[in-house]
Structure formats: C-alpha cells, structure tokens
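W.,

You were right to be curious about this one. When I first looked at the sequence I had no strong expectations either way, so I just let the prediction run and decided to look at it fresh. Below is the sequence, 181 residues in total, followed by the output.
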Amino acid sequence: MKKILTVLMIALLAFSTSAFSQVKKETRAEKKARIEKMVKDGITNKNLFIEITRICPINGVAQNVVYGNDGYYIKIFGKTISCSMPYIGNARSVAYGSNSDLSINSDKQEMTLFGGWQEKDKCYAFQTIFWNGNKTEGPGSMQVTLTMQIYTSGEVFAKVDITGMDSMSYVGDVDQEPAAK
C-alpha cells in the first residue's frame, strides 16, 4: 500500500509541475518594454496612475507604504489631477479653524501640467499647482506645488511644496490603475 501511495504522489508531483511550467513567465526585457510603453503612452495620453511606495519627510525617517493598505496615489487624467498623499512635517502657519489633518488630497481638480522630456536627466519632468482638498479659499485652503520626475523604468520621484510648510518627497511607480472596488 505504501508503494502505491508513493508512486501516486510522485506521479501527481510530476504532472503538477509540468502543468505549472506551461505558464509563460515574463522575461526582464519584456517587462522593461511593457513598463516603458506604459509610461510613454500614459504621458502622451495624459493618463497616468502613480502608486506611492515610499514617503520621505524632510525632517524625518523615510517610510515604505503599500497601496493596498494605505491607498496613496497620484492620478493624472487629461487636465485633472486626483491624489491622496500623507503629509508629515512642520507647518509654520496653520489657518485659523483648520483641523489637524494635513494630508494632501484632490479629486478630479483642473490643473495644467508644465514640462516634458529632459534629455540631461533621461526622464520626464513635470510641475503642476492645485488646491488641497479642492478648497480655493477659507480655512484650511492650501495651494500645493507638485514637481515630478518620471523615468521610463516606471520610477517616479515627486516633491510637494506648500507655502508655510516643510517640503515632502515621495517615491512611487507608474502602474495600472486598480479596478474600483
């Protein structure tokens, strides 16, 4: 009985590995070409989704973040920007009546994207200005300047400047936008 079970286990193992080996793995060159095409098409069509993977406060320790858990992103679609990014830093001037949430958020806000390909740095460099939380006036309104370097490898380095607050940097990757839940 033990011999039969052993033979069956070996046969099952042999068949299962051959079934899994038929799935074609993407080579490094294919992955690089796919990401480069995604970046170039995204910039050409002004349709980019950037998943924030690391936050870098100016006076603090860099922290890794996970999109599935934290949900930090920058999305550019046409002439609009949507984003959700944390802010960790010092605010030298806080508007009267504002709450303590200093995260940077925007939802389909109109913006103009300035910049293009930078031959010297071998990347796309862009800058835009938008209002945090889509508030253009009143308590808590903050004008945000976002500067990004987008490399054809899919890596993104972003920096946020807000008047009266420390700068904040982010690292991320150009990615496919996840399906809505």
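Here's what jumped out at me. Helices lie at 2-21, 28-45, 67-70. And, maybe more interesting for your project: The first strand starts at residue 47 and ends at 57.

Coffee later to discuss?

I.
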